[in-house]
Design a protein that fits this description.
- By secondary structure, the protein is α+β, with helices and mostly antiparallel strands.
- It folds into two domains: 1-27 and 188-333, Hotdog Thioesterase (Thiol Ester Dehydrase, Chain A, Roll); 30-186, Hotdog Thioesterase (Thiol Ester Dehydrase, Chain A, Roll).
- Helix content is 19%, strand content 40%.
- The chain contains six helices and 14 strands.
- The chain has helices at residues 11-14, 72-90, 95-99, 177-185, 227-245, 322-327; strands at residues 5-9, 30-39, 44-52, 102-109, 121-132, 138-146, 149-157, 167-171, 191-201, 206-215, 257-265, 275-289, 292-303, 310-319.
- It has a 14-stranded antiparallel sheet.
- The longest helix is centred in the N-terminal third of the chain and has 19 residues, at 72-90.
């Protein structure tokens, strides 16, 4: 049974941060965008995307290297870049306006099976429309289908003028320095996430920790706690909590399946200082499917701040290893 527990760092629960996907592995994935077609008249964008994983993308304590699949983080990168490209084209944005676009809301629904094809993945984007926000800014909505995922995002931006001209890029590198720079810096490789002072509460099934984001070197003045940062840190917290709930060590675990992710980010949070972040399980159940036992858990994430602009919900599933079920350490029901 889970008890109140305190750990100095998240690494005590999950292992070396340099060998885990959500702490460092995802920063070493190379994302490519090719064969991009934008049609304002048809309100659509199509492209081919690739996620090039290094061999050591995620290594367990016993040396096991997991087979890579298209992750939720890959989907975030693909969609953020291509939807921003669409807006920048149809509304003829200048470089500084491209930098001022802000992704306010994300809803991701995963497919029923992992996608192991990592190269030349087809993406189809449908532009749903634009509305005024009331402060000389605009919100645009997009629906995206890629690798079995469906993702809807809301994007805040400026408007200069509107074009109906179709355009084709053989590579994202042909789309201009602002978009190319955004895509290359979306995952900041020099950021290090330190999750410390871990507290697990058995009654509320919650895990809280200090989050400190530091940089190995100063490349830019970007101190934003981005959606990528938020999701990477919260995923580590959720992973650690669900492992403790089911008495699982990471070396015995299977891949986590992010069934649904909802993120609302009303305004940018500019901080690299330490702050407190908590995840908790709002609902949980056990399912027995095809002789396997799964836990389905709904998580909420809270950043402890008086003016917290963040709202995060994740529905997550993982298979409970048979050896854990048979060990008697955890009653699964």
């Amino acid at each position: 049974m889970i008890t109140n527990e305190v750990y100095e760092t998240i690494d005590e629960l999950l292992g070396d941060k340099d060998k885990r996907f959500f702490s460092s592995g995802f920063k070493n994935v190379k994302h490519l965008f090719n064969d991009i077609s934008i049609s304002p008249c048809r309100n659509e964008l199509t492209a081919k995307c690739s996620a090039i994983y290094p061999e050591n993308w995620s290594v367990k304590e016993d040396g096991t290297v997991l087979k890579p699949h298209v992750s939720t983080l890959d989907i975030l990168v693909f969609v953020f870049c291509l939807n921003k490209l669409f807006v920048s084209h149809i509304y003829q944005l200048k470089n500084n306006q491209i930098g001022n676009m802000w992704i306010k809301k994300v809803v991701i629904k995963a497919g029923s099976e992992p996608e192991y094809k990592l190269e030349d993945i087809d993406i189809h984007t449908r532009f749903l429309g634009t509305a005024e926000t009331g402060n000389d800014r605009y919100n645009s909505m997009f629906s995206n289908e890629i690798a079995g995922f469906n993702m809807v995002i809301e994007l805040e931006h400026d408007i200069n003028s509107m074009t109906t001209e179709e355009i084709y890029y053989s590579s994202i590198n042909d789309a201009g320095s602002a978009i190319t720079g955004y895509c290359s810096q979306l995952v900041e490789k020099n950021k290090i996430y330190d999750l410390t002072n871990i507290c697990i509460d058995k009654n509320s099934q919650s895990l809280s920790s200090n989050v400190n984001i530091r940089k190995m070197e100063t490349i830019s003045d970007n101190n934003i706690y981005s959606i990528i940062d938020l999701f990477a840190c919260a995923s580590q917290q959720m992973q650690a909590l669900i492992y403790r709930v089911d008495s699982i060590e990471r070396k015995c675990s299977n891949n986590l399946w992010m069934r649904k992710v909802e993120i609302e980010y009303k305004k940018p949070v500019s901080t690299l200082k330490s702050f407190r972040q908590t995840v908790y399980i709002s609902k949980s159940k056990i399912l027995h499917m095809k002789e396997n036992t799964w836990r389905i858990a709904d998580f909420k994430c809270i950043v402890d701040s008086p003016s917290n602009p963040l709202s995060v919900s994740v529905s997550l599933a993982h298979e409970i290893p048979e050896l854990v079920i048979n060990s008697g350490h955890k009653k699964v029901s």
